[in-house]
Amino acid sequence: MSSEGQLQLREAELTKLVSRFATKDGTNLTRISSLEFIRSVKPLKPIHTMHEPALCIVLQGRKLVSVNGEEFFYRKGDYLVVAVDLPVIGEILEASETEPYLCLRLNFNLLQIAEVSKEYKHHATNKGISERGIFVDQTDEVIVEALIRLVKLLHTPEDTEVLAPLIIKEILYRIMQGKHGDRVKNLAAKGSKLSEVAAALYYLKKYFSREIKIDELAKQVNLSPSALYHHFKQVTTMTPIQYQRALRLQEARRLIIGEDIKAADAAFKVGYESPSYFNREYRKMFGKPPGIDRKENLKIYNT
């Protein structure tokens, strides 16, 4: 059998395994805390979210993820890697009752990347170059085989604690070997521009409600203001101020819709001093004012 035929067999096996655990629409959590399955029997309208570092492999259907207007399509046979925290808009384009959208998501963090890099002696290259912190690549039999073994552990919970971390390391290792692997390796490479941008992202996430000046942020991550601006935009598609604004607005939206907090109170909580300015920014990002957005989306947050 050809290598392509073998890959198709492995993908079919993985799809069947995931289908057994993805029993409801939405996100299906598993006994392996970093492993999730997403299912939908219908296309979904665009959803704003903060996407944390993860590997996402589509087993059925098709999805579009956009970052500040830059689009990334992926479908069966593709995987998406989000290497740093990014505000994204996700839209499920293809799904049906007979063939639901099905996606396996494996979350990871910088500590895991550092461990794999150290153990397998991955040396990052092009440390001075910054690239997008998100990319799409084609799956191969080696990655799919490792994912099959990881999902099969859900049938033997007694093995999970020992074996799951080892298989996850293997999967990260395989991603690092891919054509976009440097983008992941550089996260843990001391002195790389990606690791410095990642430090800036962490700082902004932690203090997003504060007024932050570029000079101060650059000093925090040991870059000049111009270098920070350039590399930050290369990795995230946006400036530090645009990124902070997205963080603020997404958190405000969570408070308004998820916790039933008044728009003005949510605005002050996330760092806005002017409710009217907040409303204009909110409408610009989400397409409607906070009150209408809350009414239309309340059911989504409560299901």
Compose a concise summary of this entry:
The protein has 12 helices and 10 strands. The protein has helices at 3-21, 110-119, 141-152, 157-177, 181-185, 193-206, 214-220, 225-236, 240-258, 263-269, 275-286, 290-301; strands at residues 26-29, 35-40, 47-51, 54-60, 62-67, 70-75, 78-82, 86-94, 101-107, 134-138.
Secondary-structure element string: HEEEEEEEEEHEHHHHHHHHHH
Low-confidence stretches: none
Outline: globular
Distance between the termini: 45 Å
Strand content: 15-25%
Strand order of the largest sheet: 1-2-9-4-7-10
* Mean pLDDT over all positions: 91
Number of strands: 10
Helical content class: 40-55%
The biggest sheet, with number of strands, parallel, antiparallel or mixed sense and barrel status, is: 6 strands, antiparallel
Tell me which oligomeric state these chains represent: single chain
Secondary-structure content class: alpha+beta
| Tally of helical segments | 12
**Whole-angstrom Rg:** 20 Å
Could you characterize what this model shows?
It contains 12 helices and 10 strands. The chain starts with a helix and ends with a helix. 50% of the residues lie in helices and 20% in strands. By secondary structure, it is of the alpha+beta class. The chain has a 6-stranded antiparallel β-sheet with strand order 1-2-9-4-7-10.
